[in-house]
Amino acid sequence: MSYDVGLPNGDEINMTFNIRPMLDKAFGLKDWKEIQNHSSKEVAEKVAYAICRMKANPKEYKKLEPENKWGTYEGTIEFLTTIFKACEEESGGINIMT
């Protein structure tokens, strides 16, 4: 299973569902998908917050990687950075599908 994220510029990115524990912890939410009901500016702020939390404590987040490595810390940072950049460049928010 995976997350398909529709970006404000019309592009779509995809990431394994296995990263959910890292995302929920980084965003400090029950379900990180709650960020999708906000403007691009608000999403960018929330994503920047999550990236900062992850980079401040990589060992803690690497513990949440699945054993099969389908969803790594590094891949999650890259995924979030792509969302952040897209939201910084365009308006409209994001759409997350599972």
Describe the structure.
The radius of gyration is 12 Å and the shape is globular. Strands 2-1-3 form a three-stranded antiparallel sheet, with helices on one face. The model has no long low-confidence stretch (mean pLDDT 89). The longest helix has 17 residues, at 40-56. The chain contains four helices and three strands, in the order E-E-H-H-H-H-E. Helix 1 packs across helix 2. The chain has 98 residues and is an alpha+beta fold. A hairpin with a 5-residue loop joins strand 1 and strand 2 (12-16).
Task: Tell me how many strands there are.
Answer: 3
Proportion of residues in β-strands? 5-15%
Query: Residue-averaged pLDDT, rounded?
Result: 89
**Low-pLDDT residue intervals, each spanning 5 or more residues:** none
Number of separate helices: 4
Taking the sheet with the most strands, its summary is:
3 strands, antiparallel
Characterize the overall form.
Answer: globular
**Intertermini distance:** 7 Å
Strand sequence of the main sheet, in spatial order?
2-1-3
The chain-level structural class is alpha+beta
Radius of gyration: 12 Å
Order of helices and strands: EEHHHHE
Q: Give the helix proportion (percent range).
A: 40-55%
